[in-house]
Amino acid sequence: MATVTRHLKLINKNVTKRIKVHKKGNRGIWYPEESVAPYAVNLARFYHLRMLPGLNVQLTKNRTLRSLEAGQVVVTLEKTNLDWNKVLVQHHFPHLKGNDANFYFPYIHVIPKPQHQNFRLIDQT
User: Fold this and answer.
1) Each residue of 21-80: pLDDT tens digit?
2) By residue range, what is the domain housing residue 79?
3) Which domain of life is it from (predicted)?
4) 10 part of a folded domain
5) How distant is the alpha carbon of residue 98 from its chain centre?
6) Is position 81 within any domain?
């Protein structure tokens, strides 16, 4: 019985072109500063945590920042107060080793629109 080996070179040719070197997904900030973000929309997604969640922003398990209310997006640079008992903090900030006294990091906030102040008095007793 003869084995066929004539296509062996074609299989091994250009192996590095078939390897995917980047991960799938759109990363970065999707709603820049001073833009209006709707309720429950992804604001940003990162490979490595580059921003922390602020007011009305939630950090999901796949490092996505999601808005909890509709409003204006604001990015600020603030002094951190990290909880070192959390695994996420220990994973993303191992270089600090519990010493975050003078550590500043960007926070992303969603400031909601002010609610109306028009109320009507129905019953007067």
Assistant:
1) 566 677 888 998 889 999 999 999 988 888 999 999 999 988 899 999 999 999 999 998
2) 22-110
3) Eukaryota
4) no
5) 23
6) yes
